[in-house]
Hints:
The complex is a heterodimer of chains A (104) and B (294).
Chain A: H1 2-33, H2 43-64, H3 74-77, H4 81-84, H5 97-101
Chain B: H1 7-19, H2 25-36, H3 46-61, H4 64-77, H5 82-94, H6 98-111, H7 116-128, H8 132-145, H9 150-162, H10 166-179, H11 184-197, H12 200-216, H13 221-236, H14 242-270, H15 275-293
Helix pairs in contact in B: 1-2, 2-3, 3-4, 3-5, 4-5, 5-6, 6-7, 7-8, 8-9, 9-10, 10-11, 11-12, 11-13, 12-13, 13-14, 13-15, 14-15
Family (chain B): Belongs to the EMC2 family.
Function (chain B): Part of the endoplasmic reticulum membrane protein complex (EMC) that enables the energy-independent insertion into endoplasmic reticulum membranes of newly synthesized membrane proteins.
InterPro entries (chain B): EMC2-like, TPR-like_helical_dom_sf, TPR_EMC2, TPR_rpt
Amino acid sequence: MGFSTDKLCVFIGLLSLVHAAYSAAQHRAYLRLTKQEFTSLPADVLLQCVLSIVLACYGIVRVVGEFRAIKASLELEKRTWDTLGNRPSFYTFSHRGRFLFHSG
Amino acid sequence: MASSMNWEAARDRLRKLREEQHRCSDEVVSLWEDVLCANSYRLGDELWMVHEQVCIAALDCGNKDVAMMNLHALQEQFPNSMRVRRLRGLFFESQENYDKALKIYDAILDIDETNTLIRKRKIAILKAKDDIRGAIKELNVYVERFMSDYEAWMELCDLYLQEQDYTKAAFCLEELIMSNPHSHLYHEKYAEIKYTQGGIENMCTARRYFAQSLKLNPNNMRALYGLFLSASNVASSKSKDAKTKKDNIKYAAWAAEQITKQYKEVARKKEVDTSSQLTSILHMMDEIQITQTS
């Protein structure tokens, strides 16, 4: 089932991202304790960070729904003149309606 | 029919009609009477919108009792609302008691001069009294003040059409096309007006706008027929050179092909037999083709 694997992707991606953040924090704490200068994060944390973002992005894009075409007239294609030309604020009531629909 | 519906389906149907602006007033009233009236307590805040919708629909059907009932419910809930007072005005309008309606509207306009809905009602009253020229005059004043009200432009266009003033109607549609250049319906209607005006130049314009409408929505059957007829007309005119004629014969043939394709598509989808329609269409097209060559 595609739907649940997508959700799993989001979950794992976010979890892994949190884990990467935690690793980074740990690394900073380790550096502070050993009194070393901070230059950059270790490569494995960076890699995990990037990969988990990609995974989460992929999952979210799949989960939120179908893409719609970038086409300005798509919404209008289904409309007909019957609804577009119907103007509620200019309704008049002096027409055949009362004889057609009312049997009172 | 509607009594077998459950209340949720009825609510959704009413919502859809409201959002897409259908005018199926008899359906709205019967949905209310058969299903929702007994379940109105379940609708929550949407109830007031439904009351308004049903009230207008009932007036449209001439069903005074249902309209009164909904109007009273709204009046009790919102005693000072302009929108409800407007509904009262609508009620008097449906009774053809225009003086009383106008009194209500004028009173609202005294408080809120910019209430466009009420201004439009006053124009609608002129229309209902069959004073089309008066309505056009008032509507012109209105669109001068509220230029971005495209509903009004559309109404003005239709009023001009009723008076057979095609040049002015076409101008209104030009405004509408500028407001929404992606709407195939505006292009189609503009082309129809140009087609009605007649003359070879207008026919060429009509053909171009039908083509634009088809570009925006290739399934627009009316535009396909329009393209076919306008291209055939241009092709059969005497004042055009040979190349234009040849091009237009090509356009007409393309439109004819698309029309037959659409018919076949529908026949395939709905599994109905459209062969008799197809033959008559082909017959009609052949006849037009013959008049061109002769």
